[in-house]
Amino acid sequence: MYFVYLIQSLTDPEQIYTGYTEDLKKRLSEHNAGITFHTSKYIPWKLVTNVAFSNKSKAIEFEKFLKSGSGRVFAKLI
Questions:
Q1: The domain 2-76 belongs to what CATH superfamily?
Q2: What phi and psi, each to the nearest 5 degrees, are found at residue 3?
């Protein structure tokens, strides 16, 4: 499975990060361990939502959408 996920910083709730992974549990651990540069200064993170795909290209396409202007508006509704 391929996961597109949204995480939110617990220290700065305005900070939302969108990502893609094949191992959601491991990826969230990496964000909270400070391994990811873009999320390291807003530790800790909580999972807001995720969507599972069986098709890798569809997952990547959805992640790109969520990072677009329209996708960010959509994500705020979640």
A1: GIY-YIG endonuclease (3.40.1440.10)
A2: -115, 135
Instruction: Write out pLDDT tens, residues 1-48.
Output: 999 999 999 999 999 999 999 999 999 999 999 998 999 999 999 999
Positive or negative, the CA dihedral 26, 37, 64, 48 is positive
CB within 8 Å of 57: residues ≥ 6 apart:
none
Write phi, then psi, for 31 (nearest 5 degrees).
-60, -45
Q: Where are the domains of the chain?
A: 2-76
